[in-house]
Amino acid sequence: MLLQLSNLEVSYHKKQVIFGLSLVVEEGKVVALVGPNGAGKTTTLNTVIGLLHPRKGEVFFRGENITRQKASENVRRGISLIPQGGRVFPDLSVLENLELGGYLLEPRRLQERLSYVCGLFPILGERQKQRADSLSGGERQMLAIGRALMLTPVLLLLDEPSIGLAPLLVKEIMKTLVQISQGAGTSIFVVEQNVREIFQIAHKAYVLRVGQIILESQDPLALLEDENLRKSYLS
């Protein structure tokens, strides 16, 4: 398995948020983490990347214990995090944002990755010279994803990639995630409120409630057929 979280307990500002959380993300798979607001989904992602460290439990990536590693070290290992809201550097151009994402790359490799990202998101290629703050919300989300892809991550962590986007853009983003997973073999661990859309592409889903995994399924779409579950945890 690519990523394994084992019995994590995580506190945020002295308040415990995660209680004994365990899950796995396999190579080349899209895994969804869903649940109500405040369940601890973002905290889980921040713990994986190394922005937070657990009080107890362990994080393994490719069999290596990275529980206490810094986020910068985990990026070099091949983990990239896209925070909620499509955060970009607003004062920089689209191209400069992408180049920052590939800051570790040699010039030739940098150009290859720029071509790959602009192939995924042609609008970014068209607007390379524009300032990032002139982009629409959907375009900024594309830029945030593209920047994270510049270093060819093995594991892509996404926090609410569809938030604030129109339905057609949500479908476009989901289609792109499938392309990333299938084409580049990048594994994706995604937190998402748009349960119906993410379950269309996810290979596995975990439902998180008050910091605990209450359900997991290898058939995410089947979860939507359970009316009580959907109303209680997936709305």
Principal-axis shape: globular
SS class: alpha/beta
**Most strands sheet:** 6 strands, mixed
Please list the strands of the largest sheet in the order they lie side by side: 6-7-8-3-9-10
DSSP, total strands = 10
**Can you say what the CATH homologous superfamily is?**
P-loop containing nucleotide triphosphate hydrolases
Number of self-contained structural domains: 1
Secondary-structure element order, N to C? EEEHEEHEHHHHEHEHEEHH
CATH class: Alpha Beta
* Mean pLDDT across all amino acids: 92
Beta-strand portion reads 25-35%
Helix content: 25-40%
Number of helices: 10
The CATH topology name reads Rossmann fold
Could you explain how this protein is built, in words?
By secondary structure, the chain is an alpha/beta fold. It is built from ten helices and ten strands. The protein has one domain (3-234): P-loop containing nucleotide triphosphate hydrolases (Rossmann fold, 3-Layer(aba) Sandwich), CATH 3.40.50. 40% of the residues lie in helices and 26% in strands. The strands form two sheets. Strands 6-7-8-3-9-10 form a six-stranded mixed sheet, sandwiched between helices. Strands 2-1-4-5 form a four-stranded antiparallel sheet, with helices on one face. Strand 9 and strand 10 form a beta hairpin.
